[in-house]
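thought: user wants a sequence for this fold. calling inverse folding tool.
action: design(structure=
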């Protein structure tokens, strides 16, 4: 199966390269046959060859790169074909060479161990202090503590310091292709087949997981085009994490659409600005049930909607607790000093 996947990858890349070169050559020649003379003919001549249809050539490139399943669905859902094929034919978007997925992925706690180091907590406390106005305004508006908001922003991007430089569209598109027929077949072969015999119970789990991934990430691909238009960008101008999240709170595009909030009143939701990032994070949590006075279990349930990882939730709650303790210590020290 691995050998077949490599063959498919090579074929798609070769076909895509050939079409890109054809497109470039056609553009350079203005659609005329190679070697055509520039001398004006004095007698009747055949009509000049029609210039190639750019969108058709780009569509063939996108198809050769393996994206036709996604392209057709996006077009059927109302996006302009020219915009979609131009995005997926772009050399910055790699060919789709398959997505193998786990049936029950889990994040290790080790991923977040660094979040709770002394240095990290100090940086989070600095973030809390430097952005106090924005964080406290978000707390006032949505009932989510400034420490919880800070903890999420710090765990996600170190309070906007590391928002990611990957293109948003390819990462989301790849995940949205989980249920593409050839990709599903490859996963069934890899996960549910032993010595040529399909385990139907495991196969059902593979199909369900593929449908879940498609259901989660196809709307994000569609929303990427819509959000880019809202922001006055092209889809490939949006950058973030390799999995397609962007901005200080690492929102997916549909979360931007539903929960993005203009925290500074400039008429634009910019998740790279702390006023908007804090307000949007708080709005997301409030919409998913956050209220003052929640139990620990209830807090975990709300944060689960933000990131479905127990390790992530542990890191956020522990960091928020340390920020609270540090703030109480600072306030207590200030009160003691003023009473002397």
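)
observation: tool returned 340 residues.
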């Amino acid at each position: 199966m691995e050998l077949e996947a490599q063959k498919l990858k090579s074929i798609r890349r070769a076909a895509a390269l050939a079409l890109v070169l054809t497109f470039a050559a056609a553009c350079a020649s203005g659609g005329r046959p190679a070697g055509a003379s520039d001398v004006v003919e004095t007698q009747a001549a055949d009509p000049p060859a029609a210039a190639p249809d750019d969108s058709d050539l780009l569509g063939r490139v996108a198809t050769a790169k393996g994206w036709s399943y996604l392209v057709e669905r996006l077009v059927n859902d109302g996006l302009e074909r020219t915009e979609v094929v131009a995005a997926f034919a772009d050399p910055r978007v790699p060919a789709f060479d398959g997505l193998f997925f786990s049936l029950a992925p889990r994040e290790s706690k080790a991923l977040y161990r660094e979040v709770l180091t002394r240095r990290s907590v100090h940086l989070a406390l600095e973030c809390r202090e430097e952005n106090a106005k924005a964080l406290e305004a978000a707390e006032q508006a949505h009932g989510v503590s400034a420490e919880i908001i800070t903890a999420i922003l710090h765990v996600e991007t170190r309070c906007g310091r590391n928002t990611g430089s990957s293109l948003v569209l390819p990462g989301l598109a790849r995940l949205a292709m989980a249920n593409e027929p050839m990709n599903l077949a490859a996963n069934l072969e890899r996960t549910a087949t032993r010595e040529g015999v399909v385990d139907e119970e495991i196969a059902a789990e593979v199909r369900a997981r593929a449908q879940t991934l498609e259901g989660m990430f196809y709307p994000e691909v569609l929303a990427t085009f819509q959000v880019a238009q809202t922001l006055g960008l092209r889809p490939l101008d949006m950058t973030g994490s390799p999995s397609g999240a962007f901005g200080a709170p690492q929102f997916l595009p549909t979360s931007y659409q539903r929960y993005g909030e203009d925290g500074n009143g400039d008429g634009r939701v910019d998740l790279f600005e702390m006023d908007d990032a804090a307000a949007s994070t708080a709005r997301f949590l409030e919409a998913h049930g956050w209220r003052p006075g929640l139990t620990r279990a209830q807090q975990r349930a709300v944060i689960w909607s933000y990131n479905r990882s127990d390790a992530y939730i542990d890191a956020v709650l522990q960091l928020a607790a340390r920020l609270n303790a540090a703030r109480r210590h600072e306030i207590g020290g200030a009160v003691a000093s003023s009473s002397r």
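thought: summarizing for user.
answer: Here is the designed sequence. The domain at 109-163+247-332 is CATH 1.10.530.10 (Lysozyme).
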